[in-house]
Amino acid sequence: MPTVAVKLYSFLFKFTVKHRLQSRIGASPDEADPSGVTSRPEDAVAPANPTFSDGVATKDIHVDDPRASLSLRLFLPETALSGSDSKSRVRVNRDDSYGGYSPPAGRSGRRLPVLLQFHGGGFVSGSNNSVANDVFCRRIAKLCDVVVVAVGYRLAPENRYPAAFEDGVRALHWVGKQANLADWSRSQWKVGRDTMNDNFGASMVEPWLAAHGDPSSVPTKSEIKLANSYFYDKAMCLLAWKLFLPEEEVNLNHPAANPLIPGRGPPLKCMPPTLTVVAEHDWMRDRAIAYSEELRKVNVDAVLLDYKDAVHEFATLDVLLKTPQAQACAEDIAIWVKKYISLRGHEFSY
């Protein structure tokens, strides 16, 4: 069972977050920021750190777009400095701060893979530069030995669905452009009606993305037993969906909420290898497990990691980041990621 300290913090967390979500439901539409909101005032922000003091350097990038600017934070592991050709790949300033990264010319030398990361928060809170997300991405960059690109997507209700999804696609396009991808024919996936090709080939899913839909009127065991569970309970999730989905389309069988709804595209068989992380004390766990099982039924390599005595967001929440479970989860993710990432990756510079 979670510790007494976790239980007390969970109680305060739910009380505070529910109040904030309810206040946003009653907010006037003219309070929306047309340029997009990517963070909340209550979220502590970690400034970008260009030095490799803890093994990872970070840099913030803003990509201009007619619709809304795209905010990205890039995490570069210190291992990029290793090797005989490191000077040609990483520019280090006189104060030992990060000055830029570019891969070696030609086919020789080692290139760092790229991992695209989308922070949690139910599409209504969190940010790519929050203290918690910064710590998590640094940990993943070091353990996986990859360049992590954390996406600051637009939040609801200022920008409802499909704004966050569109920002995700824009971020993928930007990474593809920077990486100079020459071969876009290895795999295909669909976004809306457009078919796209990509070389990234793997995805990680947490219960929020895979399990909020309710494809039947019969609740699962975890939804009954853990409806008032720690941190993100059922009531809070329903508030988040009301803020995220278009007001006239608030339905948990909406394609954005339920990945298992019949007729939803793309077909599950088109999904890349997928890692799903679930926690024992998370009310969404049964839906996430069902999603993973459906992927395996259509021969998708879908690994499920189930952590005992864990709560929702145990690997990314600020107060839980230093727990043995959070560290073990990051290490398990690294093992899985390294299985699919080739060190002969594509060129990527910034």
Task: Please provide a written account of the structure.
It contains nine helices and eleven strands. It has 350 residues and is α/β, with parallel strands linked by helices. It starts with a helix and ends in a 10-residue tail after the last helix. The chain has a four-stranded mixed beta sheet with strand order 1-2-6-5, with helices on both faces. It has a three-stranded parallel beta sheet with strand order 9-10-11. It has helices at 4-25, 86-89, 131-144, 163-178, 207-210, 221-225, 234-244, 285-297, 324-340, and strands at residues 56-63, 70-77, 90-92, 98-101, 114-118, 147-152, 187-191, 194-198, 203-205, 274-281, 302-311.
What letter string, H or E per element, gives the SSE order? HEEHEEEHEHEEEHHHEHEH
Mean pLDDT: 78
Residue runs with pLDDT of under 50 for 5 or more positions: 84-88, 180-202, 204-216, 343-350
Walk across the major sheet and give the strand order: 1-2-6-5
- Number of helical segments? 9
Radius of gyration computed on alpha carbons: 20 Å
Task: Give the beta-strand count.
Answer: 11
State which percent range the strand residues make up. 15-25%
CA-CA gap between termini: 45 Å
Quick one: biggest sheet?
4 strands, mixed
**Looking at the structure, what is the overall shape?**
globular
Helix content: 25-40%
Category from helices, strands and their pairing: alpha/beta
